[in-house]
Amino acid sequence: MASYNAISTVLFGGLVDKIGDDFKFLRESLPKTNIQIPFRSYLSAAIFSSLIIYLFSLVVVATVVTFLNLETVQKIIFILFGPFLLAGITFAVQVLYPYQRALSTSRNIDANLPFALSHMAAIAESGVPPYMIFKLLSRFDEYGEIAREMKVLVRNIDSFGIDPLTAIRELANKTPSDDFKQILLGIVSATEGGGDVKTYIKNAGQQALFEWKLKREKFMQQLDAYSEFYTGILITAPLFIISLFAVMNMIQPNIGGFDILTLTRLSIYVLVPLLNVGFLLFLRGVEVEM
Fold it and tell me: Torsions phi, psi of 259, nearest 5?
């Protein structure tokens, strides 16, 4: 893998230097994930992989299309746009993966943060320092990404000898969750300023839980609008399109070289499932996690 990244950087590193500013979101997302690859090497590898996919798929598509009973125009369309589409998908997946991973981690942290803060406040009642709070919290895998972040923090302190407050600052700078970052920096400020860390964590937990309840209530109200959208766009519209194709098939079976029956099958077996999957992904993106 290292040699592949090195080859990619040699081939496309110069191009990345020119277009790197257009991928600012990728540059910011990589440090917030566990992907230990520099931005220049990662983007170069994405470009190189896309080029390989394009050349390979070009040969495969051209070979397959030769044996299919298609018109010349259709063959040209498949050969020109098929490989380009596959290469574009490959590039998009690789470039968006760190961002999506950081976003997923952030959502998981934000969902568990109110309950983790409540637990932290209960531990802080005993008067233990923040380091011990984080160490105890790292043992509870129920808190998902927060527990994993705490394990990294404890490892940096115990294994690498980093000062606890310095380790907390480093974690705050790397975490993809802005809310968690503010909590960590607040703990550092309260500790350095001689403030009451226990009170700070307790108040932060109450505020986070209140905001989570508001988000959850707002999402439940939005579901009513989403259900109407689903009924009108993803149920009624596909049925109308399929009915329209059925009527057109009886009047004119072919339009522009494309068979109406084939378009109907594509609508039923491809378009409708894709629309439903897209709607589910949309709901997953806006959902407030339990």
Answer: -80, 130
